[in-house]
Amino acid sequence: MTKPDILQVGPYPDWDQVPLDETFNMHKYFEASDPAGFLNAVGATVKGIATRGELGANRAMIEACPNLEVISVYGVGFDAVDLQACRERGIRVTNTPDVLTNDVADLGVAMMLVQSRGMIGAEAWVRDGSWQEKGLYPLQSRVWGKTAGVLGLGRIGFEVAKRLAGFDLKIAYSDVSAKDYARDWSFVSDPVELARKSDFLFVTLAASAETRHIVNKDVIEAVGPQGMIINISRASNIDEEALLEALESNRLGSAALDVFEGEPALNPRFLELNNVLLQPHHASGTFETRKAMGKLVRDNLKAHFAGQDLLTPVL
Ligand SMILES: NC(=O)c1ccc[n+]([C@@H]2O[C@H](COP(=O)([O-])OP(=O)(O)OC[C@H]3O[C@@H](n4cnc5c(N)ncnc54)[C@H](O)[C@@H]3O)[C@@H](O)[C@H]2O)c1
Ligand SMILES: O=C(O)[C@H](O)CO
């Protein structure tokens, strides 16, 4: 049987690349010196796209592949895929939900703990001799007993909240509606009101045009000078300019961020701040989870080309 032609938008680890190359005819877009020319040359043969959540597939890429049938996303967030362009052409889309949920929640909670207790600075205090020269490390803020707001109580938001409850935090959350599975936690529909109640505001929303900058100046200032915002979702959910201004003026106490506008480049103003913890979009970055994500990407492609039901369809 001829191998289906797949456009591969970004690199994968070897344990995914090897089986992909065995099963499909992979066209490595990310290695092309002239990406537009490459797309022009291979586009007509392409039946599937394998991409990553943050890379997606835009309308131009989709239109350059007139025989495209399926897009398989390595990631749960599919906001970078032009779903409208896919709907217009009957193109199926899959993602990798559930397998990454716990690791993303773990990292979000770890970011809050590390930042609250000043652990990055404390590590430097030991290594640079400050402990011996200056003595005790400056006191930090307590976590337990405070209130965490979870903006977006989906799969990841729920696991974040569950973990925080285990740390004896009080939980409030916001979403499009109250959730049956969250009866012990208070639902607050207005994000500004949620932020006002929160010492820690976790942003765990699926990103869309509706959620763009949902965390705006008002929400940020409602979290306030003693509060912290933790973003493990997408940069677009926060007005980054307003966030930077609030951090620079201490109208927001601190932030812990795994995602940035224009990443992996980030606004250099972040690097000047000592009240922000910066992470390189690696919330799902464990061997175990990434292997499960890669398998799901392949299994969805295989299912499609075998005429079987998709395992985790978005469209
Ligand atoms: N940092 C990372 O490495 C990383 C890893 C995985 C996922 N993510 C991001 O996390 C997101 C959430 O993943 P998930 O599996 O929990 O998704 P999910 O679909 O289970 O949860 C998203 C939640 O957002 C809510 N929501 C959507 N629009 C809303 C709105 N306008 N107002 C209020 N709530 C709204 C939904 O109702 C849902 O409960 C992903 O879409 C992805 O962008 C980031
Ligand atoms: O959405 C996801 O799963 C991650 O952010 C990777 O894109």
Largest sheet report: 7 strands, parallel
- Using DSSP, what is the number of strands? 12
- Overall body shape: globular
**Uncertain residue segments:** none
**Average of pLDDT:** 98
Helix content: 25-40%
Derived from helix and strand composition plus strand pairing, the structural class reads alpha/beta
**In CATH, what is the homologous superfamily of the largest domain?**
NAD(P)-binding Rossmann-like Domain
CA-CA gap between termini: 27 Å
Q: What radius of gyration results from the CA coordinates?
A: 21 Å
Keywords: NAD, NADP, Oxidoreductase
GO cellular component, one term: cytosol
Family: Belongs to the D-isomer specific 2-hydroxyacid dehydrogenase family.
GO molecular function, one term: NAD binding
